[in-house]
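Technical note accompanying the year-one report. For the benefit of new consortium partners, we illustrate the data format agreed upon in the data management plan: each record pairs a sequence with a structure-token string. No post-processing was applied to the example shown here.
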Amino acid sequence: QVQLVESGGTLVQTGGSLRLSCAASGHTVSAYGMGWFRQAPGKEREFVAAVSWSGASTLYTDSVKGRFAISRDIAKNTVYLQMSSLKPEDTAVYYCAADKRRTFLPARGQNEYDYWGQGTQVTVSS
């Protein structure tokens, strides 16, 4: 059974940095495409970043390009989201997701992901 557990969310000041982790079990992160999504209060969940199953391709939403970086540690079976230059509008619950299709490019759509974590709260104070 595939399980994803996010951690690392906390309260941080504007301009600060934070690294989120997504520990996977029941599958290897090198076999699945992995993505990060977020949901701010009163808003729909949105795509943030993703990495293809091969690790060769990454994808980011425009608002985080140059500030966020997705990576994975195969030995630890963990995917990370390194966030820097954080803004109050980055405040949200961040979710990790796994896509079992082996596509060349990482997926952006929520319905393309098969497994989800429970989320971790990131709050950026102004």
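Partners are asked to follow this layout when depositing records. The longest strand covers residues 18-25.
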